[in-house]
Amino acid sequence: MRRRITAALLAAAVATLSACTAAPVHDKTDTKLIGLGREAIHVGIAYDHAGRGDKSFNDAAGQGIDRAKKDLLVQATEVTTKSEDDEGRSAALRELVQAGSNPIIAVGFLYAGAVKTVAAEHPDRLFAIIDDDSVQAKNVVSLIFAEEQGSFLVGVAAALASKSGRVGFIGGVDVPVIRKFWAGYEAGAKSVDSSIRVDSRFLTKPPDFSGFGSPDKGKAAAAAMIDDGADVVYSAAGGSGQGSFEAVAAAQGVWAIGVDSDQYASAEGKVKSRILTSMLKRVDNGVFQEIQAFIKGDRSGGVRRYDLKVDGLGYATSNPAIKKYVSGMEKARFRILSGAEKVPTS
């Protein structure tokens, strides 16, 4: 009797092993299974005029696409607007429509007019736009970030690092989203030292948006601040920030703070060692998560907000010099997360 039971158990084990061996092995991530299954996802992304390689905003979005291609097994078409107007941006979006892309992601609030037009032309496609929530449509989703929260943290670092009691802020263009960076930075610095002076300059005002791509203007603004005594300069100015870094590198005892991406990691030469930290605007997470949501079937419009609670913002720690200020920055983070600190947006 015992031999018959043992034989039966052995046969069952062999059958189970055979079944396991024959079954295909899949990644546990359900999004990968969807990507390999019935529907092939082809994402389109339209960068603003600086395109990939700006070491800032566009590159952060590009990192999200790269991650989606690797982890979610999607295909992607990437384009850059050829002209800085609604016509050029609409043409970029239509190019992605023709490529069969869905969803289509527009990088930056300057795409608002183009998204409104092209989304109305193609109600069967889902469009996502970063940094704008003015387009109200069933097939448009807005990805909005709490830039003021991340800027508050680097403002704390600036005040802790400053020896002169004077720090600077450079905004690319005087628009509401950039004023959020300024407001948070100033509030963070003053939370450490209420008497600290925060000098601020905006490189251009609408309808002139060249302040996001004029390194010469960024360099001149930073040099003027440094001459006036600022020893930490935070730039939220896109490609113009590279010019401000050059001005900081040419001075003695002055720190730069980068934005969007970890700009210490991409800098070279004398500039690299002078970038204390960068405010990380996790556009990469926003892009990746929007593609992930699309794959899982969430294809409705609306607004998605990214703040400290969902890892939408942060700061870089690549430069070892920032370590002495991390404790103060983390205390500020916890105050914001607990609600004890209300960060202004203007």
From TrEMBL:
CDD domains: PBP1_PrnA-like
Domain ABC transporter substrate-binding protein PnrA-like, residue spans: 47-343
Sequence intervals crossing the membrane: none
Keyword Transcription found: no
Annotated compartments: Cell membrane
Keywords annotated in UniProt: Cell membrane, Lipoprotein, Membrane, Signal
Gene Ontology CC: one annotated term: plasma membrane
Tree of life domain: Bacteria
Statement: the UniProt record of this protein carries the keyword Cell membrane: yes
InterPro entries in alphabetical order: BMP_lipoprotein, Peripla_BP_I, PnrA-like
One Pfam family hit: Bmp
Topological type in the membrane: Lipid-anchor
Signal sequence annotation: 1-22
PANTHER family in alphabetical order: ABC TRANSPORTER GUANOSINE-BINDING PROTEIN NUPN, TRANSCRIPTIONAL ACTIVATOR PROTEIN MED
Protein family per UniProt: Belongs to the BMP lipoprotein family.
Protein's name in the database: ABC transporter substrate-binding protein PnrA-like domain-containing protein
Organism of provenance: Couchioplanes caeruleus subsp. caeruleus
